[in-house]
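I have been asked to look over a protein record a colleague put together. Alongside the sequence sits a line of tokens, each denoting a local backbone shape. Please read both lines and tell me whether the tokens look consistent with the sequence. Take the sequence as given and treat only the tokens as open to question. I have pasted the whole thing underneath without changing anything:
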Amino acid sequence: MVFVTVGFARDLLVEPPPHLVQARPGPFRRESGVRPRGTARHLPMSESNAVVVTGPPPGGMLINRSSKSVGGGAVSLAPILRRAGVRSPCPAVPTGVRHGPQARPDGLRSVPDAGTRVRGEERGVGATGLAGRLAAARAGALVGREPERAVLDRMLSGAADAPLVAYLHGPGGIGKSSLLRYAARQAGTAGRRVVQVDARFLDADPRRIEEVAAPACVEPGAVLLIDSFEHCQPLEPWLRDTFLLRLAEGALVVLASRVAPDAEWLVDPGWAELFAELAVRPLDATQSDALLAARGVAAEQRRAIVAFAGGSPLALSLAASLPAGARDTSPLWKPAGDVLTTLVERLVGELPGTAHLRALEVVAQAYVTRESLLRAVLGEEDTARVFPWLRQLPYIEATPEGLHPHDAVRATLAADLRWRDPERYEDVRVEVSVACLHAVRAASEDDALVRVAEWMFLFRDRDDPDDLYDWRAHPHVEDTPLRPADVPDVLRMAEEAESPESATAVAHWVRSQPQGFRVYRYAGSSAPVAFMAVLRLEAPLPEDRAEDPVIASLWDFVEAVAPLGRGEHLGIRRFAVQPGRHQRPSPLMDLISRRAIAAEMRTRGRAVAFTVFEDAERWRRYLARAGMLEVVAVDVGGQEQHVFGRDWRRQPVEKWVEHRARAVAEPVAGWPGVASACPADERGDDLPRAVFEEGVVEALRTWRTPREFATSVLLRSRLVPRGSTDPVADLRGAFTGALDALRVDPAGVKAHEVLTATYIAASRTHKATARRLGVPYGTYRRHLAAAKDRLVEQLLRHRTEPATGGAR
């Protein structure tokens, strides 16, 4: 009679089960009987299951600790263990037991891993059976991972210099289990016994590991695969220093964990030669595209999914599982609903508390997270507790600049927060934006550009065709101060890219304010390739007016429209010169922009700021969205130079960075008398629908804060009549008229009620408003979303004549 053990609570397994037996720690149970040839018994995987033993079984005995019986006869346990040289509960094979795929004495045929070919012969349920087809599909879906597979293949080949232990680590959903299945399949092909253990069900108990991994202690050449080892991570020293030393001759071990291995593996000179650490990284774009193609995703849909997934096989697979109609071709595609919930659960897992969730919300928004940034958002106490926790998360890398999440985790966390709590999503962006401002101000001159790039990272997903700057690093370009030896090259570039008259103005400012110039060179070269200058002007000096016609015209404008007060000054990014690609989007223009932004953020007492472009058509829309309107245009050597500016006295830098983070379209701090500085084709109905909608929401949000409301992007829309003497009042009138119109329409009464309660007579929170209205919070949010849509439609029908109403 053949016994198959299921459970090790009272039993010590000397004979591994015939094939594919799930060993379940728990109440003792014995199954007996002979299976039909060519079949295998499966026990469904459950919470108590921990091990799968596959491969050709040896003959052997089942030992019951209580009865000391083997099969039907009595035998002493101690002599068997002594004879095998085993001094621990991990058992050994009795003397004389043969191994391999040969026929068993009882005439039963050994059954290797289902669907696996052993020495060219089809065994088990075969490739046409469910298990075989499942294994084949999984094998075909494995994309990339060539370095990891090469190490596993060398181990399984028995190469003399191959490691005996491989440790796969990476975040959830990165593909560790797929590599374990690959190892199991390759081991089965090689005729090796495979012992698969799921550490989630072992309770970090060393006795459980000894029990379920017992076959690897008795079968020479066995392959022990332990998945989800992070659940047993406290046992890592015991596993390394005690248990693995008991494995059978030629046994191999592959561990998979979300946690990186203990440094002792590599510090110990013995283990250093036998151990391989395999960090499983995200797939690259080509591999991600190949995975989606293999899953039948159309080519026009793959790019958006690849951009979101960040190389996570889990995210890619979940997106591929959606019906084709649920995936669009937008470059900013993001999942929602069940897919998003699954991603959060699988990629992130359970969190210890609210502070940890808030910390991850910050990490998802910020390019890198330092303690100072987290402290600015969470406070001192929570940061001291949470930051060390963040550092050890498997999906967060500790870089020299700070903590950096894997792309898929970042995208998932951000999409999840935006989906479940849009207001909180914007609040986090604002908090991070303000913290970045403080970081720019606290940085050294050399680090300022890096900190500005981190701030610009917040706006990478605006999907704006007019966004002409790139937040990414450009390590091949160097930003340096002006050196005396650079002056001839600087003058030459000014004349070449602009005009001799422009070069004359450059020469004047090189003499007057050399500290305002920055010169750009390619790394490893001393030759200048571009330059820029930010000037600080406190008064209109005659020599400045004489040498630079742009500055002369600018002073005329400032004195007429926005005179400087005591202690104030103006700043102007006067030159941005790059011969060959003059003022076109490029890495050099990116750095010039960052330097100009850094100057605005770091300089105190600046009342007004300006920037100059020759190619106004290229830059006008972009600058308007950043709050800079065209104020003057000046002919310099036959080339018209356009000056754009903002008044920081009407909108301080601190408020500006908040608005930049909160709205898709940036509010404009206009100039008195320059309300219509944008050309006619950029007003009103030509505002993109998304920009208009975001402007409506922003105007509602700032309704009770007049200073912020006065910076609305809708001041440039057809809601405000051309030539208006009070654009802010006219915009308020348009809103009150639209709200009153909703109240007149029976279908809009509910919209009027919820909008008025939320924004006009606002409560402190949306939940408080829901209580005031007497509706559940979920119902309130649905009504509010519908009301915003209805108000947008009403405003789009509004004509240029301002309306008046009673919601002031």
